[in-house]
Amino acid sequence: MAVRLLEGKKALVSGVANRRSIAWGIAQAFHEQGARLAFTCLESACRRVAKLAAELDSDLVFPCDVSRDEEISRAFEEVGRAFDGELNVLVHSIAYARLEDLGGEFLTVSREGWRVALETSAYSLVAMARAARPLMKAAGGGSILTLSFQGSGKVVPSYNVMGVAKAALESAVRYLAYDLGPDGIRVNALSPGPIPTASAVVIERFEESTRRVEAQSPLLRSVTLQDVGSAAVFYAADASGMITGSILNVDGGMGILISGAGPHPRAPKPGAPSMQNAEGRRQKAE
Ligand SMILES: NC(=O)c1ccc[n+]([C@@H]2O[C@H](COP(=O)([O-])OP(=O)(O)OC[C@H]3O[C@@H](n4cnc5c(N)ncnc54)[C@H](O)[C@@H]3O)[C@@H](O)[C@H]2O)c1
Predict the structure, then answer these.
(1) Is 159 one of the catalytic residues?
(2) DSSP H helical segments within the chain, as ranges?
(3) N or C: more exposed end of the chain, with fewer CB within 10 A?
(4) Could you tell me if 252 and 191 are in contact, meaning their C-beta atoms sit under 8 angstroms apart?
(5) pLDDT recorded at residue 270
(6) pTM, full prediction
């Protein structure tokens, strides 16, 4: 029987809203690799998330609005109780900005819009890492993983204040990695290419960005939840034990291209079977 990379690990996954959530792809991959799972989510999503959690043999679903410190404390107390005071893995897959701040001119962002986006999408990683530390220390170390996007370092039109939040998030990954390293706790981020989730599709011209990845990236297909899930397994597993403070692109190589590179010369011609379809068939067959 194949060795399961996360056998016996206790993992808390935040940010599942529905089946299209990146956090759901990660949770499925963790489950396949033998992890025990707990979930936190917004209270309004808890019933839906509980049904999904049951598919992965978990009944541990705790409400946690990350803009409220008392909810973070309570959720981690519950997680500690459920996991005998220990936690090996924390996935932070949470971001939010007000709709009016995703589109138009970045220049118009208000103080409040800035606060909401940065607090929910970046500060929350710090707050959750702080709450996770005692449980991870008790486990002899741990792995914290968050989700960023290339809008942190480059202008992605319409991404606006969320790009600033992702820049703050990536910087927080490095400072947290420095603080928590001596406790044996690693902190890293995955930076996937565009995936059509509920949060992403509200961004103007989102569809264009997935089509661009399919036509231009070296791997000639867009990123799937499974792609992010398997990269997350690596970061959660002992195999990545010497990696901390890193930001890993999961983007089919899109990030290496110069802007305006245009379609890849070997991209399938319109109407021809695409790499996306070939990959879809391969994943279905497995
Ligand atoms: N979809 C993409 O193209 C893409 C690409 C790169 C990175 N990401 C990042 O992946 C992460 C997950 O997003 P997703 O695309 O899966 O979308 P999603 O909408 O499925 O997930 C976002 C989650 O954040 C949660 N959330 C928002 N405000 C919260 C709060 N105050 N307290 C607790 N939870 C809160 C939502 O409930 C939801 O579960 C985000 O950080 C996002 O920026 C997404």
Answers:
(1) yes
(2) 22-32, 46-55, 69-82, 111-118, 124-138, 161-180, 206-216, 225-236, 275-285
(3) N
(4) no
(5) 74
(6) 0.96
